[in-house]
Amino acid sequence: MSRPRIVIVGAGFAGYRAARTLSRITRRHADITLLNPTDYFLYLPLLPQVAAGILEPRRVTVSLSGTLRHVRLVLGEADGIDLDGNTVHYTGPEGDVGTLPFDRLILAAGSVNKLLPIPGVAEHAHGFRGLPEALYLRDHVTRQVELAATADDPKSCAARCTFVVVGAGYTGTEVAAQGQLFTDSQVRKHPLRTGMRPRWLLLDIADRVLPELDERLSRTADRVLRQRGVDVRMGTSVKEATHNGVVLSDGSFVDTRTLVWCVGVRPDPLAESLELPMEKGRLLVDPHLQVPGRPELFAAGDAAAVPDLEKPGEYTPMTAQHAWRQGRTVGQNVAASLGMGERRAYRHRDLGFVVDLGGVKAAANPLGVPLSGVAAGAVTRSYHLAAMPGNRVRVAADWLLDAVLPRQAVQLGLVRSWSVPLDTASPELARVPGRSDTGAQDKKGEKRDDPAEKRAAGPEATEPPDPVQDPDAGKHPEPPGPVKRPNSGAGGSEPSPGAGTGTGGQPPPGTPAVHKPHPDAPIAPEPRLQHPSQGDS
Q1: pLDDT score, position 1
Q2: What HEC string does 63-82 produce?
Q3: Euclidean distance between CA atoms 76 and 438, whole angstroms
Q4: Is the model's pLDDT at 425 over the cut of 70?
Q5: What is the mean pLDDT of residues 173-184?
Q6: Which of 94, 136, 242, 363 would be 217's cystine partner, CB 3.0–4.6 Å?
C-alpha cells in the first residue's frame, strides 16, 4: 500500500511548524511535501533589526531542508488548487510549472501587505513583510543620510532625513524605534548641516501607540520613542502620498523621501480561489483546523479563520503566535486523520507580550508582569533566542558585536525600489527583471513571461532600464524620490501598485504592475509572549 501524501503550502510560522510536527509523528510513514517560494523559514520578529543593520539577513532565515527531516522541499508558488482532482498547481522560480498530488492538504499561505484606498500610497510606499523589503529599507535609509550630508540645499537635506512610518502597531513601532537609533549612529560619521538631525515620524489613527497592548506597556513604548526623538502623532494618518512627501490627515505636508507602510496584513489571495466559505478573506475552519465538508483540506495561520474557543463567537487574530501554535495542532490533526494519534481542538492562552525598542530598551509583560527598560530588553532577547528554530549562536554573536562595535552602514545595492512593490502577492520575493509578480498574475490566469524567451531576446530584454526621476539625478546613480510606475489598468478602488518611495530604477518595459483585489482584513491585535510579529509568512 502506498504511503499517504501530505502537501503543505507555505513555510511561514504555521507551515513550518506543521511540517516539523508531521515529520516527527509520521516517522516516514507518509510522504510530506512542503511548497514554498524560498528555501528558508523567515523569523519575522527580528526583521526590524535587519533593516537597522544589527543582524545580517541570514541570521533571521532558517534552512528548510537543513532543519526539516524527511520533508521534501519544492520551490515554487501555488497558482491554484484542484480539490476535486486532489492536486496543487505551482510555478517554480525559473518559470517551470508543475503539480503536486495530495491525500491531505494544509493551506498555510500566510498574508501580504494590507492596502487602503489612499491616493499615491501604492506608488510611493513600501511594506515590511519580507527580507527583500528590509534590505531595501536599510539601503535606502543609508543612502538618504549620506546624500543629506552632502546636500547644499537645507530643504533637500531635511527631506532626505525625514522618515515616515504609518502604523503604530508592533511592526511600525519597532521599525521607528530601531530606525531612529540607526540614523543617529550614521550621522556621527556623516554630520548633517548645523542644527539638523534625522527625524522619524510614527503615525496612526489610534489614540495611543500599541493600542492592542496594556496601557502601561503602551505608555512605556511611547515614552521611549519620544525620548529618543521620534515624532509620535496619534490620531493622524496619511491622506495622500506624492513624489515629494505626504499629506497628512490634519492637512499638513511633510517633505520626505521615505514612506514605510506598516498598517497591517491581509490574507494571501490563494484561499479565495477555492470558492469555499470565507471570513474576511480567511478560509473558515472548525476548531480542529479542518475545512467543513472537506476532510482532505486543513488550514492554519493567517490563511485560516479559526474559532477562538476562549472568546466564543470570535476568531483568533492573524498573529505569529497563533500561527506557530496552530501549526503544531494542524500537524497533529492531519496525522490523526491518517490513523496516527488523536486529534485535538485548537486552544490557546496568552503568555504576555514583548516589543523590542532597540538598544537595551523594550516593553514586556511576561505572564502578566509589566517590565520596561533593561529588564524588559533582557526578557525580549532571551525569548527570541529560545523561540528561534535555528541560528541562535549567530544571532547572539551579532548582538554582542553590535554592543561593542559601531554598525556598518553601507549600501549593498541588492534590492531596487521597483522590485519590492507594496501591492504584491509574494512579499518574500523581490521582483525579477522581465517577469511579472508570479503569484498575482498566475492566480488571475494571465500568461506569464517566459524567462527563456527573455534570455533569447538579448540583454536589452532582461536588464531593466534604470532612469532617475530626481532633480539631482546626475549626482548619484539611484534617486531617493519615488519612482512612478505605469498603471496595470486593473480596476477597483485601490490605487495602482508600484515601486514605492525611493531609490530604485524604473521596472523593465512590459512588466505589469501588480494588482489583485483582496478583502481587507482588519488590523488585528497581535498578543503574544514572543515578539508580536506581522503574522504568518
Answers
A1: 57
A2: EHHHHCCCEEEEECEEEEEE
A3: 10
A4: yes
A5: 96
A6: 363
CA distances (Å), origin 367, targets 211, 353, 377: 19, 9, 16
Q: Give the whole-angstrom CA distance, residue 144 versus residue 364.
A: 33
What does the alpha-carbon distance between residue 385 and residue 271 come to, in Å, rounded to a whole number?
33
22: closest CA among 126, 119, 104? Answer: 104
Query: Do the Cβ atoms of 33 and 71 come closer than 8 Å?
Result: yes
| Cell 492573524 -> residue | 318
Query: Hunting for cell 511594506 — which residue is that?
Result: 127
Ranges of beta strands (E only) in 333-434 are 354-356, 362-364, 371-372
Residue 220, SS3 per DSSP: helix
- Provide the residue type at 244 as one letter: N
Residue that wins the pLDDT comparison between 32 and 317: 32
Look at 434 and 152; give whichever has higher pLDDT: 152
Non-local (6+) Cβ contacts of 293 within 8 A are: none
**Alpha carbon 249 to its chain's center:** 26
Contact 257, 151 (CB under 8 A): no
Average pLDDT, the chain: 83
